[in-house]
Amino acid sequence: MKAIGIDIGTTTVCGIVLDMQTGEVAEVCTLDNDSGISGKPYERLQDAQRIWELVQGMYHQFLQHFSDICCIGLTGQMHGIVYTDAQGCAVSPLYTWQDERGNETDQATGQTYVQQLSDRTGFAMASGFGLTTHYYQTIHHQIPEQAVHFCAIHDYIGMRLAGRREPLVTSSTAASFGCFDIKNSRFDTDAIKRAGMEESYLPQCQDGCILLGYTPQGIAVSAGVGDNQASVIGSVKDVQKSVLINVGTGAQVSVGADHWIDAKHVELRPVTGDAYLLVGSSLCGGRAYAAMEQFLRRTVMLMTGEDPGSLYQKMDEILAQREAAAKAFGDAAGSGAAGGDSSLQFRTSFCGTREEPELTGCISGLTLLNFTPEEFIYGVLAGMAQELTGFYEQMRGQGAARPQYLIGSGNGLRKNRHLQKIFEDAFGMRMQIPAHKEEASYGAALYAMTACGQCRTLREAQELIRYL
Question: Is the pLDDT of residue 332 over 60?
Fold first, then answer.
């Protein structure tokens, strides 16, 4: 028997077919998410109909290749919303998690819309959160006339696959919209009303592993799960005893918790039932290292007039030479994890933070000795790690248990052994990397297996996970 897992990311849509007996990935399909729509400078929009076409094509491709598919699970970019009508069809673009309309200033008050909404609801809101977007649309009377509900993109696709007219979301996604009472697993409708928003637009929310319905071909469709939670489900065998570092376009550090915690400066995110995650998110994440590569590449072009092409392999070689030189002097490369022993310090918050969107990156501790390309390359990696380990220390201070296992996921980490080493030094543990590369899609498939009754619990489904 097989299960499908599909991850609707910001830049790609990735689907897998999972063998439910062996845990092996039988097929992978990755498509460019070419659904981007141009708009106002602060808008980050995608075409929901185009995303539906991409997923539908992928789904039918899998059905042609395998006759024993029993279920399909979905995950995708959180926070963002798409409005749907009474028939369950999209009547707006997808306002993605990168949308910045919430950071626009209300000329009448001098506050940003994020600040206004946070003050009126008592929740720490951010631009890109679904209810921040909805608040802006409400204030400016820009909600589509036919709109009845809103939901995340993976919830919309699940609704279409199962032939539903109304979205049904899990708490893992609902919490990402903001104004969500995680302790009681429900939207805080009183807070939403105080902000002048109508609660009727909210999607129905349920907890646990939920079955939405069936496709016309009889394939069970599970409710969507947030991409961070799906990545954890698909990477970690024991959530309560592990810390997961994920580095991709963004980056997160996630630690399991078996009870509600009044988290500060990090997020508490629901998974299912009484399982939670403490999550610290870097908005820049792997893009910081990509920016370093682009900086070096442009430097070469300006100096030589020629494009050298991708420099990632050369950067890896430079870091290996740095490591060898450090060992030759009796100092293990990367000692002082996250750059602790180095006077050169990079703050890689180039995209700001959730709490301080205006924050920028910076470099300090420059000397004539460390003003070198190799130290800059290493410094960016160390800065990326330092941001995430900083979140982890905050989690520990708020009651998170010390983990027994260090798990790594995401291409930004999987392909960079030097970054892996920095984290291993930081946590004093060997990093385990899942054998499969499509962690979020894998997690969505495991979730679907549980929702349709193939596994009794998520923990049982996670026994399929194997590490390199």
Answer: no
Question: Taking the model in full, what pTM does it have?
Answer: 0.86
Amino acid at 164: R
Whole-number mean pLDDT of the chain?
92
Check residues 233 and 342 and name the one with the higher pLDDT.
Answer: 233
Q: What angle do CA 204, 176, 243 make, to 5 degrees?
A: 125
**Residue 96 carries which DSSP code?**
-
**Tokens 């997690």 map to which residue?**
443
Q: Is 353 exposed, middle or buried (0-12, 13-18, 19+ CB in 10 A)?
A: middle
Rounded CA separation 151/173 (Å): 9
Residue 49 amino acid letter? Q
Dihedral sign, Cα of residue 297, residue 298, residue 301, residue 307: positive
Report residue 75 CA to chain centroid gap. 10
Burial class of residue 259 (count of CB atoms within 10 Å of its CB; 0-12, 13-18, 19+): exposed
Sign of CA dihedral 37, 40, 41, 43: negative
Q: What is the pLDDT of residues 284-303, one digit of tens each?
A: 889 999 999 999 999 999 99
Which runs of consecutive H residues, i.e. helices, occur in 84-164?
113-121, 130-139, 153-162
pLDDT at 327 over 90: no
Does the pLDDT of residue 281 top 80, yes or no? Answer: yes
Structure tokens at 410: 């995401």
89: CB partners within 8 A, 6+ apart: none
* Amino acid at residue number 160: R
Question: Residue 96: how many CB atoms within 10 A of its CB?
Answer: 22
Structure token pair of residue 317: 């070689």
**All residues at 6 or more sequence positions from 56 whose CB lies less than 8 Å from its CB, including other chains:** 160
pLDDT digits (tens, 9 = 90+) for 370-427: 999 999 999 999 999 999 999 999 999 888 888 899 999 988 999 999 999 999 999 9
Nearest residue to 205 via CA among 153, 170, 158:
170
Backbone angles phi, psi at 330, to 5 degrees: 80, 15
Q: Any alpha helices (H) in 334-372, and if so which ranges? A: none
User: How many helices and strands, by DSSP H and E, does the chain display?
Assistant: 14, 24
Cβ atoms of residues 222 and 71 within 8 Å: yes
Q: Are 241 and 219 in contact (CB under 8 A)?
A: no
Are 431 and 424 a contacting pair, CB within 8 Å? yes
Calculate the alpha carbon distances from 145 to 40, 138, 148, 371 in Å: 20, 12, 9, 57
Dist CA 310 CA 308 (whole Å)? 7
How many CB atoms sit inside 10 A of residue 26's CB? 15
- pLDDT at residue 125, as a whole number: 94
381 Cβ contact partners less than 8 Å away, ≥ 6 residues apart = 289, 319, 416, 418, 419, 422
- Helix residue ranges per DSSP H, 398-438: 411-414, 417-427
Please give the pLDDT value at position 330. Answer: 67
